[in-house]
Design goal:
- It is built from 38 helices and nine strands.
- It is mainly α and 802 residues long.
- It folds into seven domains: 4-135, P-loop containing nucleotide triphosphate hydrolases (Rossmann fold); 141-196, no CATH class; 217-321, Arc Repressor Mutant, subunit A, CATH 1.10.10; 322-394, no CATH class; 418-616, no CATH class; 666-732; 744-795, Winged helix-like DNA-binding domain superfamily/Winged helix DNA-binding domain (Arc Repressor Mutant, subunit A).
- The strands form three sheets. Strands 2-3-4-1-5 form a five-stranded parallel sheet, with helices on both faces. The protein has a two-stranded antiparallel ribbon with strand order 6-7.
- InterPro entries: P-loop_NTPase, Sig_transdc_resp-reg_C-effctor, Tscrpt_reg_LuxR_C, WH-like_DNA-bd_sf.
- This is DNA-binding CsgD family transcriptional regulator.
- Residues 735-800 form the HTH luxR-type domain.
- One of its GO terms (molecular function) is DNA binding.
Length: 802
């Protein structure tokens, strides 16, 4: 069961009926918490219960000798023989045992013997009919996200932190709660890969799961602990692969102890970072570093056979080794290549302080950065003019290098001064001129205007896929910024392939591909489809060398889009700000301008009581207007001079929103329900709720009870979809259409009807006519969604006078 409280109730019911219970599961799945809840429930029911921890039990303890009490045993897997015998005697004499058993930490033969001893037969078999058996499995990512949001408190979790905790928790509830505490204490590092501060002291915070894990791993030797901590930083491997990096005997010991765990249902094993932190105090710093160097040296062998290491393993080797540490010249040279590769990637995304530290590290190894990476590093450190000179000195004739160089030069020049107006060329067959035209337009922020046909021709005819994609997205962004259908990107009614699908993946073109991917995500966001197209975007990111960095900002874009389209503008703004701070370093001025303006629109809409200084400019742009619509600020939207006027080629979203507002103004509920259905077809859940809600209000006003109730059913289904797609929303806080408040006379009439009075009797009490009573009751039933007087009794708010 997903809800441990429901499971606790089920166990208590079984115990009261005479059954014992066994709950199995890996570490951190919430067994101890479940046992405490069971004890509380038994106490409340007046059932005698005695709690004991098997790993802390001693022969002179008498808890297990209480024949009348239900024995609640935690950590049964650690029970000594004497305790197992006493528990067995307890069950043989009709006593009941509720035990928690951690799987994965002992050989199967031991586990089977221990369970048979306590329960008389293997409780996981079919012959143990009197044993309530449950196996707790780790939560999937979606359920874990909902769990974390529910426990996050007043400070909301951003998508990157959520991803870090979800990755580190491995679906374990108890681990997740400790990790949430660590994240609040800024002890979780999310970038570039999720990790926990290795210097975390045992008493830094109340971390019950971590403390319990430390206690359960107290017998792991310092040598094995050091190997486990060192292995926690690399990609998962199978037993043979791990045995090539550390002593196979250590691998076997760590597997039996449950320190090395399977990942993703495969044969590959990893040491979870949470387990590594629990073991950190059991070995010295020198022991761990020695293991890291040995493991890194082994990983370098993969580079020597021509198979590049992953980014995670690359960083592991770079941090663990220095070229001078290696006596083998080939290994030393392989490490130098890794260092240069890691620093090159860092210049694409890293902050100034990180870039400076990386450059110093590179210099200490007497290595040089490739020219483009050096230009990015100079720009990050504030020396843009020197960065331009570095780019100008590149003379490589390779087509990819030439495009990358021209692109970088265009971006850097725009940062040093205002970019020149694009030069005139009508011949798109001149590839150099066409490329320059596209790059120059990316460096400016004004609309394309009359240049649109020419740029579209470049998108259609240029042989270089990078230039063609840049041109296509230039046109698409220009269109959606004006609220028009983008010609190259699919919308609600036009399923075209994404322009970014044809982009190149060469590492030298990382700045170009980064811009293409950001632009594609921005187009999808502006047409309201970033959330729906999340998977295609992530698939595109997976093809790029800097996959993990791209996935980070993509998560922020999708989270911002999801929040905004569900009316949560404050959350959308926070995610957008995090996105803006994590985009690739060299993106053109036009793209940065769009990112800034979307942020300004989100900021303005997130606080509708504050009028922005640049309201006139904001209100003339599509993003601000559509955000007003999603925020439910339809009155201010209608008051704008431009509003959402549909023009030729307008986005489907604009046409539907306009139709919704018009139907509301015209009080046409049939049209509203039709529009709501179209929105629902396209997974636009909040607009669907708005339209169904407006239709419901009109039906209530007309006393059309049946049609109002039909809208209630539709709204309930839409609210369920919203909760599924926005895990931070609880069942109580999900966007909903709250029924209107009953008037005092409607409420009084409804209460009298619910008590069984006839309409004539109610009329006498209220001193009004029977027809007036019928009107009051019809309104009350419509507003509350009640079919009968019995429903009224159930749905009416409590009478404070009762």
């Amino acid at each position: 069961m997903e809800d441990l409280r429901d499971l606790a109730l089920s166990i208590v019911d079984g115990v009261r009926a005479g059954s014992s219970a066994l709950v199995t599961g890996p570490s951190g799945t919430g067994k101890s918490s479940l046992l405490r809840t069971v004890q509380d429930r038994l106490d409340a029911a007046g059932v005698a219960a005695r709690a004991l921890r098997a790993d802390a039990w001693a022969p002179d303890h008498d808890e297990a000798d209480d024949a009348t009490a239900v024995l609640l045993v935690d950590d049964l897997e650690s029970a000594p023989e004497d305790l197992l015998s006493r528990l067995s005697a307890h069950t043989e004499h009709g006593g009941r045992v509720v035990a928690m058993f951690e799987t994965g930490r002992h050989p199967r033969a031991y586990s089977t013997r221990a369970l048979r001893t306590v329960y008389g037969s293997h409780p996981l078999g079919h012959d143990a009919a009197t044993v309530h058996r449950t196996h707790l499995t780790p939560l999937d990512d979606e359920t874990m996200a909902r769990f974390l949001h529910a426990h996050a408190g007043e400070e909301p979790l951003d998508s990157h932190t959520l991803r870090a905790i979800t990755t580190l928790a491995l679906g374990r509830r108890a681990w997740a709660m400790d990790l949430l505490s660590l994240a609040r204490a800024e002890q979780i590092q999310a970038d570039p890969f999720p990790s926990i501060n290795p210097l975390l002291a045992p008493g830094d915070a109340p971390l019950p799961a971590l403390q319990s894990l430390r206690a359960s791993l107290a017998t792991v030797s310092p040598e094995c602990a050091a190997a486990a901590v060192a292995l926690s930083g690399i990609e998962p491997l199978d037993e043979l692969g791990l045995g090539a990096l550390v002593d196979p005997a250590i691998v076997e010991t760590l597997t039996v102890a449950g320190v090395l765990v399977p990942t993703g249902g495969s044969q590959q094993l990893e040491v979870p970072a949470f387990v590594a932190i629990a073991l950190r105090q059991r070995s010295s710093f020198d022991q761990v570093e020695r293991c890291r160097r040995e493991i890194a040296t082994g990983l370098l062998g993969q580079e020597l056979v021509g198979v590049p290491l992953s980014e995670r393993d690359t960083l592991y080797c770079v941090r663990a080794l220095a070229p001078d540490d290696l006596l083998d010249a080939d290994l030393s040279e392989a490490l130098r290549r890794l260092v240069a590769r890691a620093v090159t990637r860092l210049t694409t995304f890293g902050e100034a302080a990180q870039v400076r530290a990386a450059v110093l590290r590179l210099a200490s190894h007497r290595l040089e950065l490739p020219p483009l990476a050096r230009a990015r590093a100079l720009a990050a450190l504030g020396n843009t003019n020197e960065a331009v000179r570095v780019v100008d000195a590149i003379t490589d004739d390779d087509p990819d290098v030439r495009l990358a160089t021209r692109f970088a030069r265009s971006v850097l020049l725009a940062e040093t001064a205002e970019a020149p107006m694009p030069g005139g060329t009508d011949d798109v067959r001149d590839q150099d001129a066409a490329t320059e035209l596209v790059l120059q337009w990316w460096s400016r922020t004004e609309p394309l205007g009359d240049a649109t046909p020419l740029v579209r021709a470049v998108a259609a005819q240029h042989p270089d896929p990078g230039v063609a994609a840049l041109a296509a997205l230039l046109v698409d962004l220009d269109a959606v910024w004006a609220g028009l259908v983008p010609p190259h990107t699919s919308t609600l009614h036009a399923p075209n392939p994404l322009p970014a699908a044809t982009m190149p993946t060469s590492p030298v073109l990382s700045d170009v591909t980064g811009t293409i991917l950001v632009a594609q995500a921005l187009v999808l966001l502006l047409i309201g489809e970033a959330s729906a197209r999340r998977e295609p975007l992530l698939e595109l990111a997976a093809r790029l060398p800097d996959r993990d960095h791209h996935e980070r900002w993509l998560r922020h874009v999708v989270a911002s889009s999801t929040a905004a389209t569900f009316g949560e503008m404050g959350r959308g703004l926070r995610e957008w700000q995090l996105f803006a701070g994590s985009v690739p370093r060299l993106v053109p001025a036009r793209l940065r301008h769009y990112v800034e303006q979307v942020g300004a629109a989100l900021d303005a809409v997130s606080d509708p009581t504050r009028e922005p200084d640049d309201l006139e400019r904001l209100s003339s742009e599509y993003p601000y207007r559509i955000l007003l619509y999603f925020a439910g600020l339809h009155g201010p939207l209608q008051a704008l001079r431009t509003g959402l006027e549909p023009k030729a080629g307008a986005l489907p979203l604009i046409r539907l929103a306009r139709a919704h507002l018009d139907a509301t103004h015209e009080r046409n509920p049939a049209q509203l329900t039709r529009i709501a259905g179209i929105f629902r077809e396209y997974d636009m859940w909040l607009p669907s709720a708005y339209a169904f809600g407006d239709a419901r209000r009109i039906y209530v006003g007309r006393r059309a009870v049946g049609k109002a109730q039909a809208c209630d059913a539709e709204l309930a289904a839409v609210r369920d979809k919203i909760r599924r797609n926005a895990p931070w929303l609880s069942a109580d806080s999900a966007v909903s259409d709250v029924p209107e408040t009953l008037t005092p006379r409607e409420l009084e009439a409804a209460r009298l009807a619910a008590r069984g009075l006839r309409n004539r009797d109610i009329a006498e009490v209220l001193e009004c006519g029977v027809r007036t009573v019928e009107s009051h009751l019809a309104q009350a039933r419509a507003k509350l969604g009640a079919d009968s007087r019995e429903d009224l009794a159930r749905l009416l708010p409590p009478d404070e006078g009762d």
